[in-house]
Design a protein that fits this description.
globular; seven-stranded parallel sheet; oxidoreductase activity; binds NADP nicotinamide-adenine-dinucleotide phosphate; NAD(P)-bd_dom_sf; Rossmann fold; about 15% strand; about 45% helix; alpha/beta; about 250 residues; SDR_fam
């Protein structure tokens, strides 16, 4: 816990579960006021209750009208935004030959188009942000944007491709946003214990396979991801943009 985000307004998508929830709590602990965005308002309410430092916003990141309505609530409440974390994401498994167009589109809609829409609609608010500090977008990609772990028995070409697209969105937007004092970076988690991975990690053979290949010898926690995000969101990273911080226990070393 630090005070390095005191006074900052931070929005996190997918804030009601897993990595997003831990990111939200970490940004709050470091002093930020939080906008918690998620699909399900009941899930948001059950996680954040009536905490005054949290604005709960129901929005579907894949739906343009819903994103616009969500950003209008932030504009009305604060008139600006300092930190945006594009965390909401979905995973689907299936072999290439069985992959339907509908499922491909669904994964891209949430994992790639979602961060595009949210960032674009938040951009004016970020430009209006606290000029004493750099503003930051942090995109949650995955080691799967860089390597392919289908040997775990879970082929997911659409997920790989959608996270690869988000990686390049991060790098390209970093160039365009730099002159506005907005930094754009990614955190690439390895396997983290969340509802997202519960099924795979519930299988002992998968868990053992992962542990054998992770130099740090443990599965990641959402708090590990949150600590990386908080660094990139803060002025501690004020000259860091367009890069990826791997939070993977060393998985991608070899
Ligand atoms: P999670 O526990 O399933 O949480 C994802 C949250 O995002 C849920 O609250 C979900 O709501 C919400 N969400 C899904 N679609 C949305 C949409 N269209 N609009 C708004 N919110 C939406 O997953 P997680 O493990 O924390 O994953 C979070 C991010 O980390 C994802 O981008 C994922 O790709 C990335 N990641 C995870 C791991 C891992 O091992 N867990 C590894 C690498 C990267 P519902 O529950 O209502 O659907």
């Amino acid at each position: 816990m630090t005070n390095r985000l005191d006074g900052r307004i931070a929005a996190v998508t997918g804030a009601a579960s897993g990595n997003g929830r831990a990111i939200a709590e970490k940004l709050l602990a470091d002093g930020a006021t939080l906008v918690a965005i998620d699909l399900n308002p009941d899930a948001l309410a059950s996680v954040f209750g009536d905490r005054p430092e949290v604005l709960q916003v129901q929005a579907d990141v894949a739906d343009e009208a819903s994103v616009k309505a969500g950003m209008a609530k932030i504009a009305e409440a604060f008139g600006r935004l300092d930190i945006l974390v594009n965390n909401a994401g979905i995973v689907k498994f299936g072999t290439f030959e069985e992959l339907s167009r509908a499922e491909w589109d669904q994964v891209f809609a949430v994992n790639s188009t979602g961060p595009f829409l949210v960032s674009r609609e938040a951009y004016g608010l970020l430009r209006a942000g606290d000029g004493d500090h750099t503003r930051a977008i942090v995109n949650i990609t995955s080691v799967e944007a860089h390597i392919v772990i289908s040997s775990s028995g879970h082929p997911q070409i659409h997920y790989n491709a959608s996270k690869g697209a988000l990686l390049q969105l991060t790098r390209a937007l970093a160039v365009e946003a730099a002159s506005s004092g907005i930094r754009v970076n990614a955190v690439a988690p390895g396997f983290i214990e969340t509802p997202f991975t519960a099924e795979a990690l519930g299988k002992e053979e998968v868990r053992n396979w992962l542990l054998e290949r992770t130099p740090m010898g443990r599965i990641g926690k959402p708090e590990d991801v949150a600590n990386g995000v908080a660094f990139l969101a803060s002025d501690d990273a004020s000259w860091v943009t367009g890069t990826t911080l791997f939070v993977d226990g060393g998985w991608t070393i070899y």
